[in-house]
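Reviewer 2 asked us to include a model.

Predict the structure of this chain.
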Amino acid sequence: MRNFSYSRAATSQEALTLIATLPNAKFLGGGTNLVDLMRENIEQPDALIDVTRLPSTGIKESGCGGVSIGAEVKIPRWRIIP
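Predicted model (structure tokens):
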């Protein structure tokens, strides 16, 4: 695994600012296998942005028939918020 920088986003806006300004950055969230892919040199980001402590906003239906999934939504806790 190669070296990378690590940042923990305190807000959604900070996470978006970091991903826009850090070259070759990836979000790190719970339940992802990004670290495993990094160990195998499949993924090689220069920066990781931890979004695991951002508040969960649940899952909301969008106006186009899609859904919006909050940053910390756990699979067993998925629910639709009207």
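The chain has two helices and six strands. Residues 56 and 72 are 5 Å apart (CA to CA). We have added this to the supplementary material.
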